[in-house]
């Protein structure tokens, strides 16, 4: 049969239930509404937005662009190039162009704000423009055209339009029909193209991969395997269709995950509703929308289109003087890298870099109260610009809450005293800033957790759907020697393709100020005891090495060659003379093992080491480069670090990559239980002694009496 009728196409594009997915989300008829909430619509009708953003003003030099400022930038751009008025020029990202660090550090509340500027990445006429708009003068003050390889972060319009392109092709429509899939059940997503050499250069390219929604919301588990489309994103034309012929579409039954829709019995006793009590209310406050004050911590927080959530100017009060001391100027997930381990057609290009290719902000759907965040949470909205430059609000995108999980922050009981009862214990209460983003099939939950002892824990948890591959096989016994090909069989006709997850964090540590920081590598060296000197034969000795240049700080972790990594300020000494410092403590981790000449790894070269330290450079924010889409790997952390610049006693930036290999298993189907990885930034001789020694324990009088649970 030929192309679907006009009526069917109309249904497809405008129908109520008929949706097209992009790599990142399912679109309804008004994609703008689902992508974020248009400001005017929001203010009138969205009960989730309780704050009137239309009159918001910036209060702090790092506050994100307000709705008014975004509208002003749009006006300036419309006067700069007529394409912004007609829609031929598109805004791919728009964010505050943060003032120089020195100005931000010197700024005090009550001072005039440094001039406000917007950093815009726009695209028109096949050219990428990195534009700076000065909001005070209302002028474009710089416009860099194609500064590096690669293209801008995709817009919602890009992915929506690309997903529709294959329908123009008779061949594609025949392929769909040959699989017995109704067009009304068809969902297509748009995986990013990667970069694989000259054939796809000089134009923006995207892939299209399709699924059936028949009988489930979880179309990700029902791929139309063997049908792969490559699309020219500018011309909106099909470049290539590969159809290897129909492969069994996995069944719908067992794929549903929505509560009340799936009929999966629960074979466990009910867990009663639970939450933390805070009879005196929360202990943190948020001033001027973005400044968080809690216990001994103070930091600036904001939603960001690309990074999702940015923590800035984190200071902790000194335990001796009570004065705030700088710990970190800026911390955020700088880039993600998720390479899939299948060299076959339709899979080889999958090596997603979600922050720079689609953005973690607009894909962070509103958090679900009581489930994403506990009852005592406070919510913060994101304000972004859409492709036409208009502001949109992402409601309840970040939550802040205090966590008490029954843990202990320090304790000791004394066993030798028979005449005194010495049992000292302190509860551990922390403050968590959380964002959860849904980049297509995957959900990533980002937590920044602050402890009163000065520790910051960053956790990334992954959940959501696997990216799966259809297969004719229903049982491992049928696979024979094909078992190792792409990944394990996790359900009938479903292979969970093996892949990695890497998240590279930009951690601009400013221990006691922006200048004068160094990386000290504290090596634990096994030492042989000279014969006859001791009953011992060997022990570990600590030796310190100061990293002089960037190559000294290209670090691969090893259990059998252990180091601690301290960022210290040698000019700020402790009472006994140690330099004030913070350690980065890696958690469980994985390394990217792809060859360095493999195209995804060339672009993902920022994962070649787990730790890097670079001198501060305001243009080096995104580990894979600003323009990472189809980039050639010419502007990334590896390239910058290979310059081998001095990093001793300077303003330096620490980069840490956490990650894990993911070999899927049946429990990951149809939706994965969360799996988490984390790292910590922990004081090391930063305080003169335990900073929470003076903290009082909880007493019975502090908390309402509750019925103690019967115990043995
Ligand atoms: Cu995974």
UniProtKB/TrEMBL annotation:
Post-translational modification: Topaquinone (TPQ) is generated by copper-dependent autoxidation of a specific tyrosyl residue.
EC number(s) per entry: 1.4.3.-
Active site: 354, 442
Gene Ontology annotations of biological process type: amine metabolic process; response to abscisic acid; response to auxin; response to jasmonic acid; response to putrescine; response to salicylic acid; response to water deprivation; response to wounding
Domain spans labelled Copper amine oxidase N3-terminal: 152-245
Pfam families xrefs: Cu_amine_oxid, Cu_amine_oxidN2, Cu_amine_oxidN3
InterPro entries linked to this entry: Cu_Am_Ox_Cu-bd, Cu_amine_oxidase, Cu_amine_oxidase_C, Cu_amine_oxidase_C_sf, Cu_amine_oxidase_N-reg, Cu_amine_oxidase_N2, Cu_amine_oxidase_N3
Domain named Copper amine oxidase catalytic: residues: 275-692
Co-factor binding details: Contains 1 topaquinone per subunit.
Needed cofactors: Cu cation
Assigned keywords, A-Z: Copper, Disulfide bond, Metal-binding, Oxidoreductase, TPQ
First-level EC class: oxidoreductase
Protein name, UniProt field: Amine oxidase
Organism, as annotated: Capsella rubella
């Amino acid at each position: 049969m030929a192309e679907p009728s006009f009526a069917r196409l109309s249904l497809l594009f405008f129908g109520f239930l008929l949706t097209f997915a992009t790599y990142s989300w399912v679109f309804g008829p008004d994609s703008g509404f689902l992508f974020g909430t248009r400001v005017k619509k929001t203010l009138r009708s969205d009960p989730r937005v309780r704050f009137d953003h239309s009159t918001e003003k910036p209060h702090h030099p790092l506050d994100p662009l307000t709705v008014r400022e975004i509208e002003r930038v749009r006006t300036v751009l419309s006067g700069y190039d007529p394409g912004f008025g007609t829609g031929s020029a598109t805004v791919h990202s728009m964010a505050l162009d943060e003032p120089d660090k020195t100005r931000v550090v010197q700024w005090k509340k009550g001072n005039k704000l440094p001039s406000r500027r917007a950093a815009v990445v726009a695209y028109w006429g096949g050219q990428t423009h990195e534009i700076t708009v000065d909001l005070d003068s209302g002028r474009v003050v710089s416009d860099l055209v194609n500064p590096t390889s690669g293209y801008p972060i995709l817009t919602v319009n890009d992915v929506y339009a690309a997903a529709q392109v294959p329908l123009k092709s008779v061949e594609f429509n025949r392929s769909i029909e040959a699989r017995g899939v109704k067009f009304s059940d068809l969902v297509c997503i748009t995986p990013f193209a990667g970069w694989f050499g000259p054939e796809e250069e000089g134009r923006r390219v995207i892939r299209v991969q399709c699924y059936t929604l028949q009988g489930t919301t979880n179309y990700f588990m029902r791929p139309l395997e063997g049908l792969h489309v490559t699309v020219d994103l500018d011309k909106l034309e099909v470049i290539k269709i590969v159809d290897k012929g129909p492969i069994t579409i996995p069944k719908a039954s067992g794929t549903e995950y929505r509560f009340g829709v799936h009929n999966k019995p629960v074979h466990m006793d009910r867990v009663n509703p639970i939450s933390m009590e805070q009879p005196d209310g929360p202990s943190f406050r948020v001033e001027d929308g973005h400044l968080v004050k809690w216990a001994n911590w103070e930091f600036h927080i904001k939603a960001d289109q690309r990074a999702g959530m940015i923590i800035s100017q984190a200071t902790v009060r000194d335990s001796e003087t009570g004065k705030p001391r700088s710990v970190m100027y800026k911390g955020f997930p700088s880039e993600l890298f998720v390479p899939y381990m299948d060299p076959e057609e339709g899979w080889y290009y999958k090596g997603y870099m979600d922050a720079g290719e689609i953005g973690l902000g607009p894909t962070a759907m509103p958090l679900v109260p009581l489930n994403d965040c506990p009852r005592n949470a406070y919510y913060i909205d994101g304000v972004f610009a859409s492709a036409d430059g208009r502001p949109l609000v992402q409601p309840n995108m970040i939550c802040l809450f205090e966590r008490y999980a029954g843990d202990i922050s320090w304790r000791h009981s004394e066993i030798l005293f028979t005449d005194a009862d010495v049992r000292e214990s302190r509860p551990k209460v922390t403050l968590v800033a959380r964002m959860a983003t849904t980049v297509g099939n995957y959900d990533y939950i980002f937590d920044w957790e602050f402890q009163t002892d000065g520790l910051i824990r960053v956790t990334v948890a992954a959940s959501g759907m696997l990216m799966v591959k259809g297969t004719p096989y229903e049982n491992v016994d049928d696979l024979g020697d094909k078992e190792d090909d792409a990944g394990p069989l996790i359900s009938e006709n479903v292979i969970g393709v093996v892949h990695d997850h890497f998240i590279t964090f930009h951690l601009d540590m400013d221990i006691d100020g922006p200048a004068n920081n160094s990386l000290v590598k504290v090596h634990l060296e096994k030492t042989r005891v000279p014969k006859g000197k001791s009953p011992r034969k060997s022990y570990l000795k600590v030796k310190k090495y100061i990293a002089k240049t960037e190559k000294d700080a290209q670090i691969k972790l090893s259990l059998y060659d252990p180091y601690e990594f301290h960022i210290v300020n040698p000019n700020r000494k402790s009472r006994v003379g140690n330099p004030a410092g913070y350690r980065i403590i890696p958690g469980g981790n994985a390394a990217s093992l792809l060859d360095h000449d493999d195209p995804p790894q060339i672009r993902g070269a920022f994962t070649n080491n787990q730790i890097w330290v670079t001198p501060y450079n305001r243009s080096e924010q995104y580990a894979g480069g600003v323009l990472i889409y189809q980039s050639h790997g010419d502007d990334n952390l590896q390239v910058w670090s290979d310059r081998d610049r001095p990093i001793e006693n300077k303003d330096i930036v620490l980069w840490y990559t956490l990650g894990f290999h993911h070999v899927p298993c049946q429990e990951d189907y149809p939706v994965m239980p969360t799996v988490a990885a984390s790292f910590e930034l922990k004081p090391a001789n930063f305080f003169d002694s335990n900073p929470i020694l003076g903290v009082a324990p909880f007493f019975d009088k502090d908390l309402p009496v509750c019925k103690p649970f019967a115990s043995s």
